[in-house]
Automatic annotation (TrEMBL):
One of its GO terms (cellular component) is membrane. Residues 407-663 form the SGNH domain. One of its GO terms (biological process) is lipopolysaccharide biosynthetic process. This is Acyltransferase. The keyword Transcription does not apply. Residues 9-336 form the Acyltransferase domain. InterPro entries: Acyl_transf_3_dom (IPR002656), Acyltransferase_3 (IPR050879), SGNH (IPR043968). It comes from the Bacteria. GO terms for molecular function: acyltransferase activity, transferring groups other than amino-acyl groups. Pfam families: Acyl_transf_3, SGNH. The lineage of its organism: Bacteria, Pseudomonadati, Pseudomonadota, Alphaproteobacteria, Sphingomonadales. It comes from Novosphingobium colocasiae. PANTHER family: ACETYLTRANSFERASE, ACYL_TRANSF_3 DOMAIN-CONTAINING PROTEIN. The chain crosses the membrane at residues 12-28, 34-54, 75-95, 174-192, 226-246, 252-269, 281-300, 320-339, 359-378.
Amino acid sequence: MAIAGYRRDIDGLRSIAIGSVVLYHAGFQVFSGGFVGVDIFFVISGFLITSGLLKDAAGDGISIARFYVRRIRRIVPAYLAVVLAALVVGAFLLLPSEYLALGRSALATSLFVANIHSWSETGYFSGSAISHPLLHMWSLAVEEQYYLIWPIVMMGFFGLQRRTGLSTAWLPRLIVVAIVLSLAASEVMLSYSAKTVFYMAPFRAWELLLGSLLASVRWPRLPGPWAAHAVGGLALALMVVPILLLTEASRFPGLSALAPCLGAVLILYRDERYPSFAAMLLSRRIPVFLGLISYSLYLWHWPVLSFYWFATRSDPSPGWALALVLLMLALATLSWRYIERPFRVSAVPHAAGSERHVLLLGAGGLAAAAIAAVAVLAGQGFPARLPPAAARVDALAREPYVSRHGCVLTDALPDDPARSCFAAADRLPGRKIVLWGDSFAGQHVNTIEGALDRPGRPVISVVATGCTPLAGVDQYFGKGRLDARCGQFNRAVFQELLRRPDIDSVIIAGRWSNLYGLPARKGTFDPTARFLMDADHRARNVRSSLDVMARSLDRMAGQLLDRGVAVTMLREPPRYAANVRDCVALALWRGQSVVSRCGMPEAEARAMREPVDAVFSRLHQRYNNLLIYDQITQLCPADYCLGYKNETLITRDTEHLTRAGSVIALGPLLKSARFSNFPAE
């Protein structure tokens, strides 16, 4: 069927966009920057939407109702099919807590605010992204938010033009201003919140507006075929190079997204007299077909990968990844053939009624999906699907860290921790015990304060999650970004410990092995790890980070011990391969062995933290009166670690302990002479 104004090369351009996204998500590392395919889609959408609106404006005028009827026919049927399919499949694969999260995501998706939901829930590049089957819907929400505003802006502009005689040349000028403002805002905001720039429409608007600008301007003709080929070659390079060279560690989006967006613009810009080799390549049968099914392929590809992960709780091997890509293509082809096309181009839906009827059908479908999502929320994820023991484990909520006298900081850090966290110490009489650390100290707040805090012997907890307690050290995220706030906070806390004469004991706990590119399992490295630097060590590598850690711990222990402070450092609990709560609940649900599926030998747990244990061993040799306490000894009886004992969850994720686990881990320490004989006033 011939479509007026149809360009095969645009579908070919879509094939580049969808191919890069799918292969990147499927784990083919050569396409490490494949996420830029979404940016290419944004440019295409801006171009096509604005071209259609300009055509309407030149005819009988822009009609908002007609615009949304077209959008509903194009977007909503396949969109709803994926949302409802995800809810159905999720009922068989997801734990109640996971199904509840899917319900929240499905509701946000039905309301076209999935980008806002994803921004509040998870990062696109975070390890937990795969556990969100509808995460990819954020980009469609950005487009829909653009569609909500842009037709009104265009209608307002042409209405003003009719009344005042305003030149049409002002439209591209205004678009250029908007592009500059949006791009500048995104580049500046990257320094404060990359996640906000990634997900929020105002910071992505410039990409759609680039396409709108191209549609609104009559561009000069090319001087000859050689120029067309040069432009086409440049366009392909601008897209392919970022797809191959950008990584999750890149500063993105912002200016890093400009090259692929300009590449898309150059493909969309053409001189019909001189078709470029790039346009001819993209107009061939396979790229065009991939472009035709690209919307359905985008909709289905991420749920396929996510539900594979839920079914296996592991990432696919290269062979499985290829099989999943073939499954995505099959689903996308069926979706395009039997859902997209009938509603978009068939005469049958058009005969069903007026524009109002189509709008009502679209709204009704979205409402039905929202109602289904609300049912999942109201049913709390339907825990009755599971055996009672499995449901109880899954229902264990994250236990809050609440300190009686100190501070437990989970978000912003105070400018003056001495005032914010030690204020109670000035009011309370007696010799103090201080618990200092990150979430690995936070998990013990309730246990330590419950056992040791009493009148005349208060416990002051100073906890900042994500800030491992090392003084005089700069912590860099694996992506190279300095975590300056943690460094400032730790320096201030340590100075306060040295300054105060009423502190007799300090317990220090942290996620030490996260600070040197933690070897996760089987030789791989944790991408969320941090690296350490100080004045003498500026290299970003494992050996240098371990040296910096050793120097900082040595300095802290030496200065505190010289002041007569009893120092206790806690080694980490075991780190499991998978979330223990989920593993145990799934094993109980599926009738599998909790011990074999969810535990590990003690030797494996110790091997993972061997480098940092060597640091602690040297510290202990240097300071005989420094107590270094090993939690693994208590948590791994009979040479085997298991985060579930006597129907009680001990480890709530991969390594953080529950309150019950904290009591088991620290029981001998808190009953030891070091604390039972602690002097009180």
